[in-house]
Amino acid sequence: MSHPLDQSSFTSLYRQRSASIIHYGDLLSARSGHLDALHVTHPHTGKLLARYRWRDPSSPTFYRVGIFADIHGDEESGVVAAIQLLRELQINPDISEFYELFVYPICNPWGFDAGRREGKSGKDLNRCFWRDREESEVRLLEQELRATQFDGIISLHTDDTSEGIYGYVNGNTLTRHLLEPALRVTSSIIPRDDRSEIDTHPANDSMIFGGYQGILGAPEEQHPQPFSIVFETPHHAPLGKQVEAHLSAIREILSLFRVISSEGRDI
Ligand SMILES: [Zn+2]
Questions:
Q1: Domains plus CATH for the chain?
Q2: For residue range 135-165, what is the model confidence (pLDDT) as tens digits?
Q3: CA of 117 to the centre of ligand 1 (A)
Q4: CA triple 111-114-118, angle to 5 deg
Q5: What is the CA(259)–ligand 1 centre distance, in A?
Q6: Beta strands in 116-205 (DSSP E)
Q7: Helix (H) and strand (E) counts in the chain
Q8: Distance from the alpha carbon of residue 58 to the mean position of ligand 1, in angstroms
């Protein structure tokens, strides 16, 4: 016999979405000596930012990369990809050789639980970085970005207006040389969006240089700036393909950055 859900049951059921993702990530972490669940709690609001750190203690760490998903709360494929990545690292740790990876699977937990793009205040959180002091989710992420000084930032997104995969290039000059091959490899899973204008911006070879102000990125004072990539999948593609595309792009970017950066090091 079934009953319609009352409002409070409905709300708590929705809340379980982020809780179940974090629960799964924590289980993976409990089983692995390389994966730590290091969630961050806001000192005043008590809000939680889910954070996982992957590090192989037997290999030296030269580079720190942050992988951020779901700053737009309704972009589910990035969340699934971020969690899948944690699992994949346990099976194939070579992906992360020389890296310390920080994975933030749900950057906008309210939006994720409510199935909404924006944050609770109604603002697009990915326009608020380093300019809006009121958004506590953004403040927590800014603290992370400032304290960790990442060598690379990968943000996972989904676009309901795009016809294929594409990306935004920000950060240092190396960024485009990481994104270009990542798009090429990943286009075997989902074709590229080849239009000359994507998401209202001029695009070249499925890449947009610059783009919006206030997006998740390193603080301006960080020198040198990290590579900074926003990778977008088309919303219309099947979820499984989108997840696969995110993972393929991450693998390719990490592999290339290690090769390019190690040329200057004797490794
Ligand atoms: Zn987005």
A1: 1-20+35-146 (3.40.630.10), 162-211+234-267 (no CATH)
A2: 999 999 999 999 999 999 999 999 999 999 9
A3: 8
A4: 30
A5: 29
A6: 152-159, 166-171, 197-198, 201-202
A7: 6, 12
A8: 36
